[in-house]
Design a protein that fits this description.
Blueprint (H helix, E strand, L loop, with lengths): L15 E2 L2 E2 L3 E2 L5 E3 L8 E7 L10 H6 L23 E3 L5 E3 L5 E3 L6 E2 L2 E2 L5 E7 L8 H17 L4 E4 H4 L13 H8 L14
Helix pairs in contact: 2-4
Length: about 200
């Protein structure tokens, strides 16, 4: 397998090393920090992103997470100039997977956030970005990779909840959005579908 090519989670049981999923591409981001020692990793937060918005297949999202984005390359980039953000994982339209931050570390994906009275979701969550827009349907391979990733995470960490960015930062964030099919994800999770709570729906 070409280590430089993003790949899907293999069919066999996934293996991990120091919070890094093996067998996929790793692109270590500088945008991370330590998790508070008292926090357990109990949540997966689903996001959506594309750069420029609505354009897929380029390297701009990866460049953003690596602090290498050319802010002058597109007018939209001026709106996010200087942003230092990251996610643990990025799932492309074809289901291929790239990891940017060890699960053991705190990625910078959620911002100001709260769930069930607990603030600072970055402290205890894993951030997964899907290549897409809030109102544009996601592709089946993305759901398949996401479900397998969640299942693999739940084997090693006490994952209790899977939510969207919109649910932990309501009014501020809209992703993954109305086009994301939570029923599809739940069906693919099978016995783990209970990780998805009854989520509020936006009109």
């Amino acid at each position: 397998m070409n280590a430089l090519t993003p790949t899907k989670i293999p069919n066999e049981v996934a293996t991990w090393c120091d919070g890094w999923l093996q067998g996929i591409r790793h692109a270590p981001s500088p945008n991370f920090g330590p998790r508070p020692p008292v926090e357990s990793i109990s949540m997966v937060v689903v996001h959506s992103i594309s750069l420029p918005p609505g354009q897929y297949g380029g390297n701009e999202v990866e460049q953003l997470f690596l602090n290498q984005l050319d802010w002058s390359a597109h007018p939209y980039f001026e709106q996010i100039r200087g942003a230092e953000v990251s996610a643990h994982f990025f799932i492309r339209r074809d289901g291929s997977l790239i990891q940017f931050v060890s699960v053991n570390d705190r990625a910078w994906h959620a911002g100001k956030s709260s769930w069930m009275g607990q603030d600072n979701c970055n402290d205890y969550s894993v951030g997964v970005e899907l290549e897409g827009l809030e109102d544009h349907p996601f592709d089946p391979p993305q759901y398949e990779t996401l479900s397998r990733l969640i299942a693999s995470l739940a084997l090693l960490w006490p994952i209790r909840t899977v939510v969207g960015h919109e649910h932990i930062a309501p009014g501020r964030k809209r992703d993954p959005g109305i086009a994301f099919d939570w029923v599809d994800l739940g069906a693919r999770l099978g016995p783990l579908k209970g990780l998805i709570p009854a989520l509020p729906r936006r009109a």
